[in-house]
Amino acid sequence: MAGDEGEKPVAGQGDSPAQAPASGQVLFPPAFSVSEIKNKQRRHFMFLRWKQQQRKEKLAVKKKRKKEREALGDKAPPKPVPKTIENQRVYDETTVDPNDEEVTFDEATDEFAPYFNRRTVPKILITTCDRPRGRSVRFCEQLSTCIPCSHVYYRRGLALKKIIPQCISRNFTDLIIINEDRQVSNGLVLVHLPDGPTAHFKMSSVRLRKEIKRKGKEPTQHQPEVILNNFTTRLGHSIGRMFASLFPHDPHFIGRQVATFHNQRDYIFFRFHRYIFKSEKKVGIQELGPRFTLKLRSLQKGTFDSKFGEYEWIHKRREMDTSRRKFHL
């Protein structure tokens, strides 16, 4: 029986088999290896017991360090900074320095300069792939409530190269295309008009408002604030400016709405919140939706051109993803 087998000591794990003392604590020998156990049920059972012992030892060390820090008081050494992939990131030579004259000159002459100089007002067209399903249509409608001055257009057999000249003639500043596969939104193309650039993203983890727990009421017509996090490299700086140009200047703070683009390990998380003042010192946030995650695939110069377009950056997995600590945004 599997239950009887779980009480037997482990054989073949050295001269000191696993023993259960009277206190109930399981002691494993230093050379213990769960992978050497042939029986699947036995191996899974011993693995759970080993993990439980590891957690107990870790908790005991944590409590011991806490007592030592309380005993030392102000003389206690500073807490060590835990190692994470973010703080162990490989240094990128293209990291943006705000005081760099070259970066300042590029920002003053790039395609987004008219927006940041307040010479243009954002006007966005949101469309889908040809003949989309209902979920993609609802996602476009909800996305338009997050981006002011945006209009939704439903495509019916019209080529994208024909849409772009019409957008330019009608003074649209940006074009957003939502692609889908098997009724699931899986791609986003962002075209800045009239001179580009064009960014292609892989989209995942799309959640509509009705799929978000504890969501707030429908967004209002107020212009939201925009938060851009961790866009540090030259490429990330361009992508961040591209997202910023979608929203108008001078947000309406009375609306208390915030659109966030958070970059973490080259994944861009979009969230739309409303913050609530609970008291003079406490502030809470309430997600309004929708939410989604983007992964940059390519950045192309000019407007969309799949055949003859010149690319500034293309994500090549086998060449660029050689290290987990290397990020591009």
UniProtKB/TrEMBL annotation:
Location(s), subcellular: Nucleus, Nucleolus
Source organism: Sphenodon punctatus
Location of the region described as Disordered in the Swiss-Prot/TrEMBL record: 1-25, 53-83
One GO CC annotation: preribosome, large subunit precursor
Basic and acidic residues bias (residue ranges): 68-77
Physiological role: May be required for ribosome biogenesis.
InterPro entries: Brix, IMP4/RPF1
Protein name (Swiss-Prot/TrEMBL): Ribosome production factor 1
Any one Pfam family match given in the protein's UniProt record, by short name: Brix
